[in-house]
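Methods — Computational structure assignment.
A single polypeptide chain was analysed. Its primary sequence is given first, followed by the predicted tertiary structure written as structure tokens.
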Amino acid sequence: MSAESLPSIHFVDDAAIVSPFVHRKRKALEYIMYIIKAGEMYLAEDDIPITLREGDICILDKDRTHVGIRASVCDYTYIHFMHKDLRLLKEKDEEKVRELLLSYRRSSLGSDIFSYDKCEGNIIYLPKLWHAGNMAVRLRIEELAQKARQETYNPLENHKVMCGCYIQQLFMEISRGFLNEEKEVAGVSRPGYQDKIGRVVEWLNRNFDSEITGTVLEKEFEYNFDYMNRTFKKVMGQTIFQYLTHIRIDHAKMLILNTSMKMSEVGRRVGFPDEYYFSRVFKKAVGVSPGAYAGNCRQTERWNHS
């Protein structure tokens, strides 16, 4: 589905089946997502059996008939929705879509976070059936589902839009989590490594202004730095510290453009306490010194207002 349009949400709620229950036979004419929090659910969709257990997420097709095939005892969240851009994939197309999503992931990780331009790709991929093995992902999904549930019962203006926003985030968490767990990238076979690199990227973007060394990264991620760095380069096309420098210089340019800070203060704010070292690194990356860059920006601003 497209990430640029919101799903239309009919209903979001929780259910706790405390005594054995068998789902009635029906064709819902809208998509239904089940998020199993505890217990087990036994269904069949067009005579294909589906067993759902804790951590499983399943989407029932609006045009197929589903029915309970065995008594169930479970605790789950269910979401009834429609989406104008949702398209069902044939099995032969799934691998192509995953490869496309991986290329979008690499493009996004290397994108300019300060740009108005969107990252390449705006696809959300929802698996028919997926087990959320990562507890942090599962908790984020449950939190978003509960926020959407609250908006379902909220009579204030735009509550359906708010509900759709939360469910769209939930869909994105599923799409990201599925890609992290199910697919290998760049020929590296270590399970979960892509999620690890994504967390390194996120951590660097949050802590770029701190003193960061290989030892600091090893302690933070409990991972050998040399191997982490080689893996990072396979994904990102640059080493960890090359990427860190890129982040710092981008933030420095933003501070120069939008504040009246001295260059020494700009350097300190982006992780370069030594003003002269900051100037050398900045000039190597941008082509001019921080002072010259500031002068060029002011000159450009005068031209734009003349």
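Note: The radius of gyration is 24 Å.
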